[in-house]
Amino acid sequence: MRMELDERTRLLVDGFGDEGWRLVQTMSGRLNHAVPAALRIHSTLVSGRSGTGKSLLVSTLSKHFSCPLTRIHSARVTTHGHTALRQQLARIKHNTPHIVWIADVELLCGLYMAVVTDFLRTQKSGSRVLVVMTSRHVDCVGARVRHVCGDHVRILAPTANERTCLAKWFVRGAMDVDKVAIEARGLVAAELFALVSSHIHTTTESKTTAQSEPDVKWSDIGGLDTAITQLKESLIWPFLYSSSFRRLNIQASRGILLHGPPGTGKTMLARAAAHEARVQFISVSIPDLIRGEIGESEKSLARIFATARRSPSIVFLDEIDAVFGVREDAGEVGKKLITQLFLEMDLGGVVVLAATNDASRIDEAVLRPGRLDRLVLVPRPNKSGRLDILQKVTRGLKIEESVEWLAEHELSGAEIKSVVRFACYSAIRRSTTILNRSDFEHAMHSITTV
To answer: What is the helix (H) or strand (E) element at residue 235, kind and residue range?
Structure first.
């Protein structure tokens, strides 16, 4: 049962979905004793990456409940010592509604967390104090904090309906927000508000994309026409022509593997594909998946997919063989992550795009139908491909003479970009913006001696 809120506060809470209402109910139960004593929660963890709206939600609800708010900055606390923290908490009265907000709780450990734990233990059954702990990096929150907290509110990127509610709350009826909400796909609260502001304060409409939708186009990529065509058919068409796929009963690929030598443009292809499909692009750093605590690596992967399912998304796993290689060669964490990946892909709702320098190192089970079942080769460019890359990379530069001679060298796309970059450095050293052959020759020497 959802409690009564004023219209504006309700809009904001609706913008955070069920998790927003979960925090409302926790606050109401503790501050107003709206539920029996046995059901009241004395502390809750609110997690979400920067900009998701944790601070906005906590501060707005404290005003709604007309409740004093004591904010404790964990970074500052650790510089003043745990005694100062104990004294600050001791001044709070338990018999009146009060919110103690501990920001960046992942920074607290040892004696500091012991002080907070003692504070919670000293509260009596009639206490009206609620401790709210917020974290931008929930994977870094220690087990002690998780054990102390009676609940965990997870703030994720908003769904389409939630974006509309947040936009309406922000503009107070100053504009039609439906179009902006669609354009803001993949944005978190802070990014959404920035986008809305740009629409309010500009007279010409400009296209804005989410930070997670990298602005790389097919036209920016040279020498990979075959790979681009294959990606369009297997990755872009299911998004753009979803109704046709349904009518023809075509089962789109759930996973695609880009494979080829280093520096050939696999990551750039992935970013361009997400841009062309107009969907959220979630790039996963494989080393970041590895967690010290048992089970945390699988939970981290599950949270990534949970975020991706909230709006059309491509999850990009770069250097996938680092964890999802041949199972016999993987450690315990690797084997568990492979199992978790299978589970997430079997649930559907998300397209996985992965990249590796060597497809033979990938576990065969990962490449079965329904998983990474479409392989796209991203080879080193041939001469015509190198010319195409050169043309695109040097577009807009002033060059005294043709640089087509560079295409005779068997360079990868990344190496060609490095040559052009070093050539620009050489021109800058000559106090000019016009490049000549000697600049490129010096650049070739630089990359071959690195």
So the answer is: none
